[in-house]
Amino acid sequence: MRRISWLVMSLVLVTLLQVPFAGAAETAARPASEAAAQQIPVLTHAEAVAELKRLQSEQDRVKQLASNASGDLRLGDLNETLRQLDEDVDKLTASLTPQRAQLQAQVDLLGPPPDAATAREAPAVVRQRAELNARKAQLDDELKQAADSKDNIAHLQDQLAKLQRSRLKDQLALRSDSILNPSFWMPLFRLGEEDRTRLGNFTDEIKPVLRVAWEPGQRGKTLLLLCLALAVWSLGRRLLERGLAWFCLHQLPETRLRRSALALATALTTVVTTALAVRIAYAAFTGGEELPAGLQDLMAEIAKLTMTSALIAGLGRALLCTQHPSWRLPALADPVALAMKPFPTLLAGLLLLAGTLEQFNRMADTSVQVTLLGRGLVSLVVVLVIGAALLRANRVRSELVAAGERPEERATLAGLIHAAVTLIVIVGFGALLVGYISFARFLTYELVWFDIVLCSLYLLTQLTRDVCEALFSAQHRSGRIIKQLFGVDDSHLEQVSTVLSGIGASLLLLVAVLALLTGGFGTTPADLLNTLLTVLGGEKLRSMNIMPDRILNAVIALVVGIWLLRSVRRWLDAELLPKLCKEPGLRASLITLFSNVGYVLLVLLTLSLLGVKWENLAWIVSALSVGIGFGLQEIVKNFVSGLILLTERPVKVGDMVSLAGVEGDIRRINVRATEIQLGDRSTVIVPNSQLISQNVRNVTMSNSTQGVATLQLTFPLNTDPEAVRDLLLDVYRQHETILDIPAPSVTFSQLAPNGITLSVTGYVSSPRIAAGTKSDLLFEILKRLRAANISLSEPQTLRVENMAALGM
Hints:
Keywords: Cell membrane, Coiled coil, Membrane, Signal, Transmembrane, Transmembrane helix. By secondary structure, the protein is α+β, with helices and mostly antiparallel strands.
């Protein structure tokens, strides 16, 4: 136990060595590679043949080692070997290609051999041409062998990747002791002889590094550098954060960009200061000396874990922002943010310690029991910390509700994410209790990866939108400069800002989805489902040609696709289209058309992920053709009519139409039918085919801004038409809804035995108020006519009575 504790503390110190070491190694390797690229050695035929034989023998050795490899470490070494062989093949090709080009130039200079019947060539020239052609053939063969070696190396790399995935699935299906079993914790108190020997051997590699750093001549320098590293990591981080905060508050425009930039600065400050402190600590322990090969490999893995922990702590501090609640990006209540404040840092620290122990077990190649102990500690740390954070946040929200305060509003997506994280925590803890340690470790690592990707996506998306909004705002200097350079107005600036922010958010979302689907720790969700089915006996499903990985990929694509379509539709409806198009009907048509096309493509994508081949859909097409001929004919006709309405747009959303006695406003054009709202607020569902095949009166199509209020009145023949005309015009002009331009007019429509007919016309601002205006005008006209003793003409009727027959 004491040895393990000492080793863990030593590794925590040595963990700080790798990041600068990797950076120094890359820096040192880059000039070497550039120098090698600039000065390519010229190989002779014997040297090229020897190099090809070496490459082939190395590939055979990798194949043999891969068949007997034990553990991920050996497979990682083989991958590194293949990568080096691939570089050697590139160097060999780069050396032989110029020689081949030079020989071809010499052959072209000699020219083709002359015809023996017409001329004879000197023997020296013939011999030289033969030698050049022979050497060129040798180079062609060597280049072909090099190309074959490169293809073989790529194939071996693919096979190793599949082998790693297969071993991971086998490890996930491995069941061991539960964490409640005392035997699971036994390695903490008593190690086996084999594990003690392996730990001792690895300790012998660490001790010289620490001993050299603690020599009397180096002790003061080491302590000074360690204190400097600690100061940079703590005090330097605070000073850098304050400087960046001052820059964001005083140099950036007064927009939301300040908050998002400050959050990004907080996260980057934590990572940058940690990396700088690591570099100083590396110099303190090594003094520029290289570490042993085994320790270098260990430090490479722990360096990734160190930066991951720093990123977790930085993102937590940036998004919670408890010191300045007004700068907080997410909509979190202050008590909830304060309650969750210690958990990101706690998770980062415990994950670093537990992950370091796990990497140490991997490097020392300890027994299965000790390895499972390290994995169990990592899983238990993540499950307990994240679970405690969820419980504490929920308790604080419940206390706010009980106190009569309203907690933050949560979107549906946020609720789904919260439920998914809670479910993963419960399943992971249950796996630890049952004994599936490797499976629990996989779940917890993927949960951490999911949190990192999600938080990074949220932060970068907010920053992208705020940058575009501030950059193209007409109220700021950058926007005014763009207006002057390109001669655009404010509306175009706003449109460009919306489009660019949407493109940036879409790209970030695509990268995040790819990162989640490909897996953060060497596996994919399909591998997880296959593992679960292996545990539960999924071979029966495969025997029935049911592929779980395809089903999972199809379900994920369907869910993500539906969410993406709805998100893009909301963005189009709320942000982009209102700035690009002022007409509501056109916006509604474009959104509906986008949704229809998007869902069709999504269904096709889902079918392809399920493994459905289009050549196997002939029977489906045949069945559909029969169905269309009978019951689906009307549905297909209405569907096609709906597409025509959305593309040609004879009627659109917002138009006032009249069709077969139905008059109202179009509210929605669906795939099958169109919704028309009547004057009494009721809705009539009209099939789309009727709007295409029947006569439709579109009141607002030609002139959507004006309506006509026309009345026809009949007066007796003895009525003065000029007096009536003046009275009617006066009534129209005095009405508030009648427009002055065009002016109202009276037309003498008809002269008949029963009277004269006058038609009075006035224009209103909208066709929808024409009916109400006519009603008001009739009331006023009748009132004026009675006051002027002018009557309307009574309709004449022919009265026929029964009369006695003549001669009776």
